[in-house]
Amino acid sequence: MIHSTGGKHVPRLPACQSCYTKKIKCDNARPKCMPCVKSGHACFTVSLGGTVPVSRE
């Protein structure tokens, strides 16, 4: 029988649009993730509906 460790699963935030497009690891830092800081790109996600860009700043 397999027993649970009792830990709760913490949902991850979605990657920002830039990291998602480049298929790289997003650290979800605020106001900008490190990959966006290094590349100089705007850091934003898409709303839950999937159509409206939402700034992370």
Automatic annotation (TrEMBL):
What's a single GO BP term from this record? positive regulation of metabolic process
Which is an annotated GO molecular function term of this record? DNA-binding transcription factor activity, RNA polymerase II-specific
Going by the UniProt record, its keywords in alphabetical order are:
DNA-binding, Nucleus, Transcription, Transcription regulation
InterPro entries, per this entry? Zn2-C6_fun-type_DNA-bd_sf, Zn2Cys6_DnaBD
Q: State the superkingdom.
A: Eukaryota
- In this record, what's one Pfam family? Zn_clus
Domain (Zn(2)-C6 fungal-type) spans 15-43
Gene3D superfamilies, alphabetized = Zn(2)-C6 fungal-type DNA-binding domain
* Protein name per its UniProtKB record: Zn(2)-C6 fungal-type domain-containing protein
Gene source species: Aspergillus pseudonomiae
